[in-house]
Amino acid sequence: MIYWFDLLGVAVFAVSGALAAMQAGLDLFGLLVIAAMTAVGGGTLRDLLLNRHPVFWMKDTRYLLVIVASALAALMVGPFPGHAIAVLKIADALGLALFALCGTEIAEEHGVKPMPALLMGTLTACGGGVLRDVLSGQAPLLLRKDIYATAAIGGIALYFALKAMGLPMRWAFVLGMVGVAALRLAALYFGWQLPALQMLQLH
Amino acid sequence: MIYWFDLLGVAVFAVSGALAAMQAGLDLFGLLVIAAMTAVGGGTLRDLLLNRHPVFWMKDTRYLLVIVASALAALMVGPFPGHAIAVLKIADALGLALFALCGTEIAEEHGVKPMPALLMGTLTACGGGVLRDVLSGQAPLLLRKDIYATAAIGGIALYFALKAMGLPMRWAFVLGMVGVAALRLAALYFGWQLPALQMLQLH
Amino acid sequence: MIYWFDLLGVAVFAVSGALAAMQAGLDLFGLLVIAAMTAVGGGTLRDLLLNRHPVFWMKDTRYLLVIVASALAALMVGPFPGHAIAVLKIADALGLALFALCGTEIAEEHGVKPMPALLMGTLTACGGGVLRDVLSGQAPLLLRKDIYATAAIGGIALYFALKAMGLPMRWAFVLGMVGVAALRLAALYFGWQLPALQMLQLH
User: Fold this and answer.
1) Is residue A114 reached through a cis peptide bond, with omega within 30 degrees of 0 on the bond before it?
2) pLDDT, tens digit (0-9, with 9 covering 90-100), for A90-139
3) How many whole angstroms separate alpha carbon B167 and alpha carbon B173?
4) What is the C-alpha to C-alpha distance for residues C58 and B6, in angstroms, rounded to an integer?
5) Domain count, chain C
6) Contacts A–C by Cβ distance under 8 A
7) I need a surface site. Which of A136, B120, B203, C126 has the fewest CB within 10 A?
8) A54 interfacial to chain B (CB closer than 8 Å)
9) Residue A201: inside a domain
């Protein structure tokens, strides 16, 4: 079941990449590249850092097919109406939650300690969005707005805390995911943001 | 013979990187970095993703020597006259064709299926140009203008189609290369472009 | 002792990343990401290119702890007074020297030839700074200003020259480090810069 959730997460992230590409005025090829980067960029960086080969989308072609289909669908639906954007943001929060916990678990399976594993989970969940922003010529929004990566970190930390308290791994995993999604959705609903740090005059 | 073609492709891409660095007002070190990134960045990403070690320019130092020599030559020739730019664009189309098909074949040799292999070929051919643009502070042109990556994809698809129709691999390879170069040169000659996608108002 | 120097270099680079993040108006998460990227980004790229696993900060969690502590310290000290910046620049020159020579030696231990080893040393020392600039939305300063990477290259070249002249490796290593630091500090003190290359009119 996690596999199908995973494909759903990939689809949602591909749509988010496609929307960014349309906003940036890219062409069809650019749209597909940005959609793919957003959807599997984080997981690919994780696999490279963990020396996990073959990279997941190389052995299971379904990922690439889902990306192409989602990006083309986003293109054809065209300017998204407001409520479609809202649905997309909820799906995105679920994808974020799933990718964060799956990435963490994969790192643990590779014998990585909790602190770098938390980093790998966050990278899996948020790396694609950073690549999307850099490649479409923007400073990464992720680093500057929204409780997004912070939600991932919070949920992963909850997962480690629950495991340390003796909860079975499966329950800690699910509750960690719920934590990420709840933090992200609450931040969206209430408009929470981390404060930007004070400017410096270095000269 | 492919080896010498390969070095020629590296030289041409290094010159293109050096030109971009001069336009961006970088210094000598920046020029060499951008030239190297443009020339071997795509192939390096491919090798990392395929877990192919040592990375090709580490065992054969000739690649780095060719890059340094080409970049310095570009610097000394200085502002390129119009017809030198034209020669360069033709050589660039040949380099694109060679890198696209070689990258695809290397991926196939590593047991990668056609769809990700097509991706690896496109990455080999176009990844360096994207790195060049990001590092010299521009939104990647590749994703926004010109039939460039599209030519690579078209030629690689032709290669797979011809192989599937029973053509010997060697012939499919050569015809795929001809396909890439022809598409690219025709796009340059006739000014073909992919249409930019419509803008979206996300908020 | 090199290990403690290494952690010091990581701390200094993390502070430099944190300062850049504050200037760019990022939030707390962005600050930590940029600090980590600046501190270990170059070494991580080196490890990936050399196929050296696990990546150094995965097996020794102390690196991540030092990064978090340094970045938070930089945040709390707030707008740095002028003389703190001066101290930081000196520490940065020492970190640059250490990372350049350590990166080179690690590459040599992996059987890499001198020219790519020089590249690996430069990447270890300067890669993090380039990532910092790209992620905080600036064209990489490194490629455009200051004798920075050039100092790394000069010191590494000195190291190879001294080894070739028969000096024991340990002495060549130390003198190479002195070379990097001296070049960098002299460039800061005298305001040396590489000249920007001439602009080109490509069309």
Assistant:
1) no
2) 888 888 999 999 999 999 999 999 999 999 999 999 999 888 888 877 76
3) 10
4) 37
5) 1
6) 89
7) B203
8) yes
9) no
Asked if B66 contacts B14 with a C-beta cutoff of 8 angstroms, the reply is yes
In a domain, B201, yes or no: no
The verdict on residue B202 lying in a domain is: no
CB contact under 8 Å between C30 and A142, yes or no, is yes
Q: B102 CA to chain C: closest CA distance, Å? A: 20
The length of chain B in residues reads 203
The angle formed by the CA atoms of residues C43, C41 and C192, to the nearest 5 degrees, is: 90
**What dihedral angle (degrees, nearest 10) is formed by the CA atoms of C105, C111, C117, C121?**
-40
Asked if residue B118 is part of any domain, the answer here is: yes
DSSP assignment string, B38-107: HHHHHHHHHHHHHT-SS-HHHH-THHHHHHHHHHHHHHHH-SPPHHHHHHHHHHHHHHHHHHHHHHHHHH
Amino acid at C80: F
- Residue entry with tokens 């990001």: B134
Do the chains contact at B21 and C112, CB–CB below 8 Å?
A: no
For the four alpha carbons of A26, A32, A33 and A35, in that order, the dihedral sign comes to positive
Which token pair is C57? 């900060």
Chain A contact for B82 (CB, 8 A cutoff): no
Burial category of C144 from C-beta neighbours within 10 Å (exposed 0-12, middle 13-18, buried 19 and up): buried
Which residues of B fall within a CB distance of 8 Å from A53?
51
**Tens of pLDDT along A42-101?**
999 999 999 999 999 998 999 999 999 999 998 887 666 677 777 778 888 888 999 999
The pLDDT score that the predictor gives to residue C200 is: 43
Q: How far is CA C70 from the centre of its chain?
A: 16
Domain that residue B181 falls in: 2-190
Contact in structure between C33 and C40 (CB atoms under 8 Å): no
